[in-house]
Amino acid sequence: MTKMITSLIRRLSDGLNHVILLLERRQSSSTQRSKFVDLAPTDEADEEGIYAEAIEFAMNSPKVFNIAITGPYGSGKSSIIQSFLKRYKRDALQISLATFISETDEKGVGANRQEIERSILQQMLYGADANKLPLSRFKRIQSPDVTSVIKSLFMTLGILSVAYVYNFQKDIVNGGYFTPFSLENWFNLGVFSFSIVFAWVVLHRFYVASFGLSLKGISLKDVEIKPANDDETSILNRHLDEIIYFFQRTNYDLVVIEDLDRFNNADIFVTLREINSLVNSNSGVKRHIRFLYALRDDMFVNTERTKFFEFIIPVIPIINTSNSIDMVLAQGQRLSLDVGLDRQFLREVSRYLNDLRLIQNIFNEYKIYVANLETDGENLLDTNKLLAVLIYKNAYPKDFEQLHRGLGTLAKILGLRDKLVEAGEREYRNTIMRLEETLEAGERQVPVDLKELRNIYAMALLEKLPPNTLSINVNQNHAQFVEVFKLSSCDNFDELIESKVIYYKSSNNNNMPSINVSNLQNEVNSIKSYRQRREEIEAKAEENKTKILSKIRDLRPKIASIRTAKLNELLRVDSGHEHDLFEGFGDNGELARFLILEGYLDDTYYQYTSLFHSGRMSPNDNKFLIQIRAFITPEPDFPIDNPHEVIAAMRSEDFQQSYVLNVVLVDSLLSDLIRYQSQVQKLLSHIMSDFERCEEFLDTYYSSGIYVRQLLTELATKWGRLIPAMLSSPNSKEHVMKLISNIPITMLRSHSRDFEELPVFVSNNLTEILLNLPELKPERLICLDFEVKELSTIQQHSDIVNALFEEGLFALTMGNIEFIFEVILIVDDRESLYKNNYTAIRKTENKVLNQKIEENFADYLQNILLPLKTNTEEDSAAIQSVLIHDELEPSVLRAFIEQQTAKLQTLDRIPERMYCPLFESNKIQPSWKNCLSFIQSPVFSEDALTTFLDRDDVRTVILKQAIPLDEESQSLRSFILKANSLTNASYSDYIQALPSIYKTFPSGLEPGKIRILIDQKKVKFSEDNFDSIDEHRELQIHFIASYIDEYLTENDEFLLSDNYLESLLETEIPVTAKLKVIEQMDLSSLSDNSSRSALIANIIAESDLRPKNVNEDSARDLIINSSPIEIQILLLNRFHTLVSDDEVRRILKKLPDPYCEIKTGYRSPRLMDNQQNQELVRWLESRRIISSWKKDIIFDDKIKVNLFRR
Question: Domain locations in the chain?
Answer without folding.
Answer: 4-15+43-137+232-314, 147-211, 321-395+566-613, 426-559, 617-865
